[in-house]
Design brief:
Length: 395
């Protein structure tokens, strides 16, 4: 009855180039993500939550297919409305546009129980006869921060100072709101990287080098601060304030393959003020095998455990000329029950120009090409993803 359910980094609408339903065009993997978002709403309803907060990056892009908006309406917004639970949605870096134009999250403005935050805000609610004051800091686009800085410090402000002055401005704004806020419990809700937070290990980090972030001294003295943006759930202390990341609802990237996923439940006036509720996740198996001349097929088969329903990435390293000695069909057979699998071959050869298999599927051709030529490249996944979305657009 007194709880606030906080979920972050849902990334509905993200593209996965596999397990695509020809009728809907959706990958079964995006349904994993959506199902967990729906489960979070079901939890809020079953526990008669006071408020449901989405801490940014509800969508993976500023505009997603109407199918996703419809699914969220059906499985999240409508049920929460029926249950009388208000919904606050903050913009994240993935769904905050550069300009002032509307986005997919703005679609939900039509609901009386939904509020969309694309700007700084302060809200109050009552729980158990006591007041909870919320300071809301959605992700602001860098151009928006620059505007605020130029407005405050003058048009002559040197470009290289905008970042630091922006941090100073935001820090002051938050501090002033905290000072004037009269509440029994003060809660900061935001979508940023806070210095010192742990990131996933991947070539495509959720935090980009040089992006606008929270210095530790920007964290105010509040009862609790909950952030979205970083996909790894974690709790840390910053100058006496407890700072949480909800983490994403599913494993979005291979760098998150061992993470627990879930959402945060806040009970401001209880002894245990918050807890992490875990959501089910799909296993992601990264298998590495190095083969030599001796029966390479068997060596690979031995390295493959039970893969049923799992996402599998099999990386095979081998010497030059061995590729043709591997019986692909046997490997494919052992992997056939996987939810999805990809095999990456790295052959130690000087020149890489050809394709591994004969196919007319442009996505397969692209994948093979990228694997073959950029298999070891630190931005391999990004190249793959970017290539696939370009190809999708072109086709
Ligand atoms: Mn984000």
């Amino acid at each position: 009855m007194n709880e606030i359910v906080v979920v972050g980094d849902v990334h509905e609408g993200i593209n996965f180039g596999f397990q695509i339903d020809p009728e809907t065009g959706l990958s079964a993997r995006v349904l994993d993500i959506h199902d967990n978002f729906a489960r979070t709403a079901q939890f809020a309803i079953a526990n008669k939550a006071k408020l449901f907060v989405v801490l940014g990056d509800l969508f993976d892009r500023t505009h997603v297919s109407p199918t996703f908006r419809e699914m969220i309406r059906r499985d999240v917004m409508e049920p929460l409305k029926e249950a009388g639970i208000p919904v606050w949605i903050l913009a994240g870096n993935h769904d905050q546009p550069r300009g002032k134009k509307g986005t997919s999250i703005d679609d939900f403005r039509g609901y009386p129980h939904v509020r969309i935050y694309r700007k700084l805000a302060v809200e109050k609610l009552e729980i158990d006869g006591k007041s909870v004051g919320c300071i809301i800091v959605p992700y602001m686009h860098p151009t928006h921060i620059a505007e605020l800085v130029l407005e405050k410090f003058g048009k002559e402000t040197p470009l290289e100072q905008i970042f630091v002055l922006g941090q100073e401005l935001l820090k002051q704004w938050i501090q002033n709101r905290v000072d004037e806020l009269e509440a029994d419990f003060k809660l900061l809700l935001a979508h940023y990287y806070v210095e010192g937070a742990r990131l996933r290990e991947t070539a495509s980090p959720e935090v980009l080098p040089g992006e606008f972030s929270f210095r530790r001294d920007m964290i105010p003295d509040v009862d609790l601060a909950v952030f979205g943006h970083v996909h790894l759930h974690q709790a840390m202390r910053v100058q006496g304030t407890e700072v949480l990341y909800t983490g994403a609802v599913e494993r979005i990237d291979w760098g998150e393959r061992d993470d627990k996923k879930g959402f945060i439940v806040i009970d401001p006036f209880a002894e245990e003020r918050w807890r992490f509720e875990e959501l089910p996740t799909r296993d992601m198996l990264k298998l590495k095998v190095e083969v030599s001349n001796e029966d390479p097929t068997q060596k690979i088969l031995d390295a493959i455990p039970d893969v049923a329903g799992k996402l599998v990435r099999l990386e095979i390293a081998m010497g030059e000329g061995l590729r043709s000695k591997v019986a692909d069909s046997k490997i494919a057979d052992k992997l056939k029950d996987a939810f999805h699998y990809e095999v990456r071959w790295t052959e130690r050869t000087e020149e890489k120009i050809g394709f591994v298999s004969f196919t007319m599927d442009p996505f397969k051709l692209l994948r093979d090409f990228v694997d073959l030529n950029y298999g070891d490249h630190p931005k391999h996944d990004e190249l793959q993803r970017e290539g696939e979305s370009l190809l999708k657009e072109v086709l």
